[in-house]
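REQUEST FORM: STRUCTURE PREDICTION
Request ID: SP-0412
Submitted by: Lab K.M.
Chain count: 1
Length (residues): 488
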Amino acid sequence: MAENVLKIRDDECVVLNSSGDGFEIREGKSFSWLASGIFPSKINLSSLRSGIEPWLTSLFQSEHLSLLIGTGLSYSLSKMATTSDTDGEKGVTVSETSGQTSIDSKQTSMDIPALTSEKYRENILSSVKDIAEKGRRGTANIEDTIRVINELLRGLEILGHNKIEGEPTPEHLAFTELKDNLNQIILDFTIGISNIEKGIATAVLSKREEAFGYLVNFLMSFASRSGTRERLNIFTTNYDRVIEAGAELAGLHLLDRFTGTLAPIFRSSRLDVDMHYNPPGIRGEPRYLEGVARFTKLHGSIDWVDTGTYIRRIGLPFGSSDIESFLNAPGLSYVDSRKVMIYPNSAKDRETAEYPYVELFRDFAAAICRPNSTLVTFGYGFGDEHINRVIKDMLTIPSTHLVIISFNDTGGRIIKKYEEIGRHSQITLIIGEDLADLKTLVNYLLPKPSIDKASIRMSELLRQRYSSIQKDESPTEHFSATTGGVDI
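STATUS: Completed
RESULT:
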């Protein structure tokens, strides 16, 4: 019996256990938005929709709306398209519990990468474990490992172990071995991510279309903002291009910091570039073009490379299994897998190590830490303290709100963060495989903007059309514009 957690409005956290055609409410609790005096032992999705969907609709129309997407989205799409957690060809597994990717074809877990460097192995593993414990993630991941190896390599460079005069010394050989080990770890990781894309792109047509259809509807539930509201801000910790692929299919134009066409360059200057149009017959009064959102990949991407002078985005096809071939181009001659911009990158000094990620995190903080702002997280397990700190700061502003949607809460990390932050009135929780499943969200719980707008127009039309009729009718029998029926 699956366990789900729901907390909306001013209610307490309610645990729902899925049971057959409905949910059993644990501990005799109920919801404030149910009819007064009703405390059902069972409740179905339609009843839950009557409380959740209007609440989310109102939050999504906040002055500022941001969406933070974690590995849960890639997991959901991969599972939906391939009918399993693996792609069946490369043995690539998307693990939502760890928030990382595993490559089983080489018996190499990307949560604990294979370390071929004998000399420094124990030191690296010990330091990685300490970082994971300080970050309260429980188990270490590949980002911790890459960070430690980068710091160790920099220290060895300061000691001069990268230099050679005459015959190679044992220290130089150990340095070279560790550097090659890091290159292989990053290469395996990027190939694993690309194989996740490939698993979705090469899935059976019907499954692939279904998966992308749900992805499009999911994105448009957030992106369909009225012209008087600020653009949706989409942030993601993922390295893959699932969101970009869904945006293309949805006709959603993503604005990011990259400029250019052939090899876009990352720019530090953040101009308020946007897309507008002039209504027919009206000049000088441009309006927001629909279907536009701002997009930021907080941890980088497998198609970003450091060319030494700029951060460029290469034309890597979705699901490509040969990344190195696309680095074989003029201007990229010395770029190898170590230059792929995944967080943390393998730069040699602190100034470069903070770039471009310092700019991206600044955008994240600027977007959410302001009044009347709503942040929705989907598939994010709250395992990154550098992101959690910004979210905690956001909630110090009373008019902000946090909506957490997650397929599960392994280790209870989300609930712990919920209790630690406090401010429960500013947090909404939708946790569990029966509530936070992508299909359930799209079909039942997320607002459908096009339907909402049509419903509003219909209500206004009914009020205008029947207002005069209602005045002439007797007080005991009149037409109800809201229900379309007759009240006696």
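NOTES: The two ends are 45 Å apart (CA to CA).
Reviewed by: T.R.
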